[in-house]
Automatic annotation (TrEMBL):
Keywords: Acyltransferase, Transferase. It comes from Hymenobacter chitinivorans DSM 11115. The keyword Glycoprotein does not apply. InterPro entries: ACP_syn_III_C (IPR013747), ACP_syn_III_N (IPR013751), Thiolase-like (IPR016039). This is 3-oxoacyl-[acyl-carrier-protein] synthase-3. GO terms for biological process: fatty acid biosynthetic process; secondary metabolite biosynthetic process. It comes from the Bacteria. The keyword Cell membrane does not apply. Residues 228-314 form the Beta-ketoacyl-[acyl-carrier-protein] synthase III C-terminal domain. NCBIfam families: PRK09352.1 (NF006829).
Length: 315
């Protein structure tokens, strides 16, 4: 299957590190040293997970004349910060584009949900139940975040991205999805309590950030090696790595393990913070025009809970 187009939506409001210096005393330098984050985006009043998903969808369809909304026969939405758990972001997108009587599902596997959503598309395509899918990932982290939390309150940003995926190639510039791996790791380490968002408690908390860091580094590097090896590729044949945008130190650790230079990694963490399952898709949208014919890209992700995955793309 092929990724035909990708587009992102980012809220206009920029929250710099100085905001947290004023709020809870965390310095710009301290945040940079530990996370690499300089600023992040915050949804405006009236914006939410659903509205951002719709904005990203409208943008991707506007960029894809060969993939009209009427051709969409599957919508998969993903988020762990829902605006509504019943009228989900996928339903909001369906209503916005006016396509009826098609499969519409929403999933959550924390920050790795992008690849789980694409794998669901792979399954629908394989069963002959769809041929043109819309995947939308959107996070409204600031709706749940506690900015006073000096452990994790400064990490989160808002944003959304949408991908158009077809069973057949529509354009020479389409990205071939050559391989895809996802897995859960719920029994590992402190997966059950390291990062949690219980809606009744109204907050994202990360009491065991070190455990998240260690396992994110290990699993993203390992699954990247795994997908390369089973496709008979070496790291030297990998042109771009798009990791989950959680922490610049995690990205650098994964690069070191893989033996990849830093310039091969696509990163937006410094500008956007941790945008959850939307982060890697936003990064792909930003990198899309720079990927040359014949180049290979691995998207690798890790989510709280825990879960992880990798996707190998070729242009």
């Amino acid at each position: 299957m092929y990724i035909h187009q990708v587009a992102a939506y980012l809220p206009a409001q920029v929250i710099t590190n100085e905001h947290f210096t004023r709020l809870n005393g965390l310095s710009h330098e301290w945040i940079i040293e530990r996370t690499g984050i300089r600023e992040r985006r915050k949804a405006a009043v009236g914006e939410n997970t659903n509205t951002m998903a719709v904005e990203a969808t409208e943008r991707v369809l506007a960029d894809a004349p060969l993939f009209p909304a009427a051709a969409v026969d599957l919508i998969v939405g993903a988020t762990y910060t829902p605006h509504d758990t019943i009228y989900t972001l996928a339903h909001a997108v369906q209503r916005a584009i006016g396509v009826t009587d098609i499969p519409v599902v929403s999933i959550s596997s924390a920050c790795s949900s992008l690849l789980n959503a694409i794998e669901i598309v792979e399954g629908y395509f394989a069963m002959g139940k769809a041929s043109r899918a819309l995947v939308v990932v959107s996070e409204h982290n600031t709706a749940y975040n506690n900015e006073q939390d000096t452990v994790a309150g400064h990490l989160w940003g808002d944003g959304a991205a949408a991908l158009l995926i077809s069973k057949e190639r529509l354009s020479p510039s389409d990205l071939l999805v050559r391989d895809l791996i996802t897995a859960g790791a719920g029994g590992i380490g402190k997966a059950d309590e390291a990062v949690t968002l219980t809606p009744v408690a109204k907050g994202i908390i990360m009491p065991y950030g070190k455990d998240v860091f260690i396992h994110a580094c290990q699993y993203m590097a390992r699954v990247t090696q795994q997908i390369l090896e089973r496709n008979h590729l070496t790291t030297d044949e990998l042109n771009w790595l798009i990791p989950h945008q959680a922490n610049l130190r995690i990205t650098r650790n994964v690069l070191q393990t893989l033996g990849l230079p830093e310039e091969r990694a696509v990163s937006n963490i410094d500008r956007l913070g941790n945008t959850g399952c939307a982060g890697a898709a936003i990064a792909l949208s930003e990198q899309l025009e720079q990927i040359q014919a014949g180049e290979r890209v691995v998207v690798t992700v890790f989510g709280g809970g825990y879960s992880y995955g990798a996707m190998l793309l070729e242009r």
